[in-house]
Amino acid sequence: MARSTARKRALNTLYEADEKGQDFLSLLAERIAQPGAQTPLPDYAIEIVRGVADNRVTIDRALDEHSTGWKIRRMAVVDRNILRIAAWEILRNDEVPDKVAIDEALSLARTLSDDDSLSFIHGLLSALCADKEQYPVRNEDDEAEAADASESDESSETAVSAEATGSDAANGSADATESTEPAPSNPADSQPDQQASDQQSSDLQNTDQQASEQETAAQETSTQSQDAISSSQMDSGVSNTTE
Q1: Using an 8 Å Cβ cutoff, are 13 and 41 in contact?
Q2: C-alpha distances in angstroms, 227 versus 213, 214, 220, 224, 241?
Q3: pLDDT tens for residues 153-206?
Q4: Burial 130-157 (b: 16+ CB within 10 A, else e)
Q5: Which among 35, 112, 160, 226 is placed 20 to 30 Å from 106, CA to CA?
Q6: pLDDT score for 40
Q7: Is the C-alpha dihedral spanning 104, 105, 111, 114 positive or negative?
Q8: In whole angstroms, what is the distance from residue 49 CA to residue 51 CA?
């Protein structure tokens, strides 16, 4: 079967899935298993649908970057899927010359789109051909793996940073512990302090002894005063009796 017919069958599958919001590969599996009244899908039609599905992220990004005025989500459903088929052939299928991919897309557009779409599709695909080297072969699985690798690198960097922070904190804690420990004593340094302490103890003992002596003297003076008073009272009593 001619590739032109295979492109038309691939477009029908992509259009139907896009309209339903269904995954391209899911609908493709249904059409392969149950072709219905139609003939089985041509091999090249299956290759196109799978190619568009596997590279959809890159294809849609490339179309958005080269579209003037209309992003792919705002295009007519048939137009954006014609563009997806041609973009896949330009970016991923080396067997199809770029000019053939553009001509086949315009052929589909003449049948299914309006005149304005023809010039729009032609200009967009021509610009994409000029910049095709910007989109090296990389399917969505590759992009997912790259994203996972990037996240893994970020996690590793975070873990290394956390380990370094923990190490710094541990070192800081050790330094703080060392700073709170008492410094080792030097007998030579402590000797003057010990002498001063002994002198203070001697001074206190002398002060206590002096206080005790003063207290004893006071008690003796008080006793002598009381004896003198008692003697005076006795003398006065005797004098009164004589009178």
Answers
A1: yes
A2: 21, 20, 11, 5, 22
A3: 444 444 444 454 454 544 554 444 443 343 444 434 444 444 444 555 455 455
A4: eeeeebeeebeeeeeeeeeeeeeeeeee
A5: 35
A6: 94
A7: negative
A8: 5
